[in-house]
Specification:
Layout lengths: L8 H17 L5 E4 L15 E4 L16
Parallel strand pairs: 1-2
């Protein structure tokens, strides 16, 4: 899985992008961890094979996601 920044979609995208081709070069599927806000264009669909969806930490209100493709 590419590196991520929990609960920060834009930072996760920036942190992950340099790693995606390196991971693919290892011959394994490229996984990306979606974060809060990922529904706003922060998922590199053409560069990944697996999308990981985590849950918000307990005690933190869950914000429903809309606009998933």
């Amino acid at each position: 899985m590419a590196p991520d920044v929990p609960m920060d979609a834009a930072a996760t995208l920036a942190e992950s992008l340099p790693w995606l081709e390196r991971i693919r070069g290892l011959g394994v599927p490229v996984a990306f961890a979606a974060q809060d806000g990922s529904e706003h264009g922060h998922i590199p669909w053409d560069l990944i094979d697996v999308l990981f969806l985590g849950a918000p930490p307990s005690g933190r209100p869950h914000r429903p996601h809309t606009g998933w493709r």
